[in-house]
Amino acid sequence: MFSKFTSILQHAVEALAPSLPLQEDFVYHWKAITHYYIETSDDKAPVTDTNIPSHLEQMLVILVQEENEREFGETGPCMEYLLHHKILETLYTLGKADCPPGMKQQVLVFYTKLLGKIRQPLLPHINVHRPVQKLIRLCGEVLATPTENEEIQFLCIVCAKLKQDPYLVNFFLENKFKSLASQGGPNAISEDVLKGQDSLSTDTGQSCQPEEPSGASGTEHTDLEDETSRQMGDLSTSLENLSVTELPEATVVRPNQDYNLVNSLLNLTRSPDGRIAVKACEGLMLLVSLPEPAAAKCLTQSTCLCELLTDRLASLYKALPQSVDPLDIETVEAINWGLDSYSHKEDASAFPGKRALISFLSWFDYCDQLIKEAQKTAAVALAKAVHERFFIGVMEPQLMQTSEMGILTSTALLHRIVRQVTSDILLQEMVFFILGEQREPETLAEISRHPLRHRLIEHCDHISDEISIMTLRMFEHLLQKPNEHILYNLVLRNLEERNYTEYKPVCPEDKDVVENGLIAGAVDLEEDPLFTDISPDNTLSNQEWLSSSPPATPDHPKTDGKTEVHKIVNSFLCLVPDEAKSSYHVEGTGYDTYLRDAHRQFRDYCAICLRWEWPGSPKALERCNLEAAFFEGHFLKVLFDRMGRILDQPYDVNLQVTSVLSRLSLFPHPHIHEYLLDPYVNLASGCRSLFSVIVRVVGDLMVRIQRIQDFTPKLLLVRKRLLGLEPEGPVIDHITLLEGVIVLEEFCKELAAIAFVKYHAASTP
């Protein structure tokens, strides 16, 4: 009570007293602080019961006022006094000793406000960045301390200053000798520091001396210096026997002290206070983005950052329940790492493990954003650490297990993070993890060369429909990612030599055939016995194609020697025989409904693939190695096998298989277009294409239709039920076949729309 009264009385006296020059006022407040340590006999009283906080606050006010009264960049006498007398060093020492109790908090606040409010650059001064660096080491030593909030505020202002002037980070990269030298014994308040000695002044290679004050105040300044030296000597004598209590360090082990700013932030990311942890993560985000190569190297090689990111990912992943509904994993709300707040009681859609799932996805989002923002060297190192320590070390064993429930949950989680990743560098590592780095053509004997890739592709044809659907969905989203290696590894490397074709040189007598829209040696489907039931009503004229044309697409390299688009589109539309069609009985299910979607999707794919510099036309057959045995690759093999069983598979599986194939067909690569969308390609012996697979399915369908009584009415009823136009009723015989026929018809219309849009884009100037 008495000290508070004294403080109030002091403020009253200061208000009534005549105003002193700023420097005298500044020195007065600093002397008042040092006088406390010389005169006090009770070092147990909290600092809030003293006048120290108000004196520190007045010193800040004076420094800000002095700067405002001068030209920008000009150092005033008060700032020179602070630098020359190493006031920050002394305050650091007092803060480390926490004498009186609570002094550490006051010192942190002073440093934070000084760096935040003073506009001129202070950190380049050795008498600023050295004590700042020492104070950084005190932060995060113990978690959940009363000073955590002040610690994170201080660290964040330092990070912000480094973001403004990245070169300053070099002052905070310590060598190992300095780190060891800075490790004091129990008597951490040394006489050297209190007397202002600078025994480590050469540690940063800087010899930055404070500027001398202007001549106008020289005599007065000298007197103040003499008085201050006497005060500091007394202060040193009174404090040299104080000891600093050694506090147990936080549980994050520091390999060395090379980059203490990072280490302190890493410790605070483990704070029980979520707000402190988020601020620490923000500070790390600023540091990893600094362009200084030395800082990036130190960040990844001399700190625990990589280990912290990956170990926390691993622990959060392992904390998930063994079984989580894939729908819950897919539909849980979008995760933002800085907003990881969840209340089970307030959530109406809670499910077991939701809290753990949100925590995992939130931390993965943070890792993704950190790598996205990081300097390239640091980003590559961080992404590789995630690959090796988390993807391979934790996720791969889960994906390779034999338990169906475990496979389903782990694949659903993989699917979710594939959708969520946005960093190109982390995506690259994820792609290498899933698919491997191989780019040479596949052979049937070596399809298991990358075990995880082989296992995941096999899961696309798993005995469990749920696992098949989830894995296919994962691949579908993977194909939409902006990474060239995905499509090349799965498909393109096997089509590079076009050895799925049979080369027949065009003879002069074949020119009229080409001009009529057929390439030499191709079979006209209208003459194929399988399609003798095609009627003129089932085809569209050239004029109708033009009227159905979507808006112009972005420029795409033209292709040459292509069959007329209307013949190709009619080929797909006429694959399913009339008696197996049901869409014309239901309004709004015509072919034209697919055109708009196909145009939009193709435009999006063109934008993704633009930077990959794909050729505009197929590789000349004369330069292709047509003698090599053709293998469509493991991925297409499984998809074609699945497509061949479309009449005998569940509806949901068929939808997913056709969805992946349509995604592949949209890519603007000439070999993909030829192999998946050209019905007239001359297939080499023993080879199959998407069109030939569908032809075989239709042949099987035409035989099976004859055995089903009232096929057409049943087919129409099933379609209406699927569209919700008819209520569910008694089970219909051959329901799997009927649903398969409907999916087949829609898929052929979708392929026709894609083929039209792609040809239209290729012919648009």
Write a compact overview of the structure shown.
The chain is mainly α and 765 residues long. It is built from 33 helices and no strands. Among the domains are: 20-138; 303-340 and 349-435, no CATH class; 436-505 and 563-764, no CATH class.
Tag the structure with descriptive keywords.
765 residues; mainly alpha
Instruction: Please state the oligomeric state of the protein chains shown.
Output: single chain
Determine the N-to-C terminus distance: 87 Å
Q: State the helical fraction.
A: 55-70%
Principal-axes geometry comes out as elongated
Structural class designation: mainly alpha
Radius of gyration: 37 Å
What does this structure look like?
This protein is 57% helix and 0% strand. The chain is elongated. By secondary structure, it is mainly alpha-helical.
List strands and helices in order, with pairings:
Elements: H1 2-16, H2 22-39, H3 52-68, H4 77-84, H5 87-97, H6 103-117, H7 126-138, H8 148-164, H9 176-181, H10 191-194, H11 218-239, H12 260-268, H13 274-288, H14 293-301, H15 305-318, H16 326-331, H17 354-373, H18 376-399, H19 404-420, H20 424-435, H21 451-459, H22 465-479, H23 484-495, H24 511-515, H25 542-547, H26 565-573, H27 593-609, H28 634-644, H29 651-666, H30 670-677, H31 690-705, H32 711-722, H33 735-763
Helix pairs in contact: 2-3, 2-11, 3-6, 5-6, 5-7, 6-8, 7-12, 8-12, 8-13, 12-13, 13-17, 14-18, 15-17, 15-18, 17-18, 18-20, 19-22, 22-29, 26-33, 27-33, 29-33, 32-33
